[in-house]
Amino acid sequence: MYEPYASLAATASGSLDDTDFQVQSSKMSKPTYMELALKEAVGAAEQGEVPVGAVVVDVLSGEVLSGAGNRTVANNDPTAHAEIIAIRKATTKLGTPRLENCDLYVTLEPCPMCASAISFARVRRLYFGAYDPKGGGIDHGPRVFEHSSCHHRPEVIGGLEESQASDLLKNFFQKLR
Ligand SMILES: [Zn+2]
Distance of CA 6 to CAs 57, 64, 124, 142, 157, Å? Predict the structure, then answer.
């Protein structure tokens, strides 16, 4: 389903320099990887799930390896967060437990569980949308990547498409009230 975005391959680079994303976004026509994650979040909301979406991107090819929204309700699984599902799909696809040449885009600051999974998966770079002061585990709460028990700290870029991601969540929780 992600074939239309194969053209994004040309904009992905394996380098770790800080200008990478700016270069990518200025060259890239729509949709961006974060927009794909937002689509997954919208899909989750339509299923009555908390609207969080994630995609895993192979940075060498630019290919979107996997995408997922939250499925905790559908799967009766408290661990079925978008990031966990997207990581599992990507590692299964690649046939490896590690995602060293992959970036993960997620619409909300990952929780401590997902932060640990992202570290275990050796994700190269984490992009997230909205900050989550209540449940986040990156810039809030346990700040998982800053612990000495964390052996791989991905590069982290937060606040990408932040307003879109947080509006989705706000609308979802307003409807529940
Ligand atoms: Zn999580």
Answer: 11, 8, 20, 37, 23
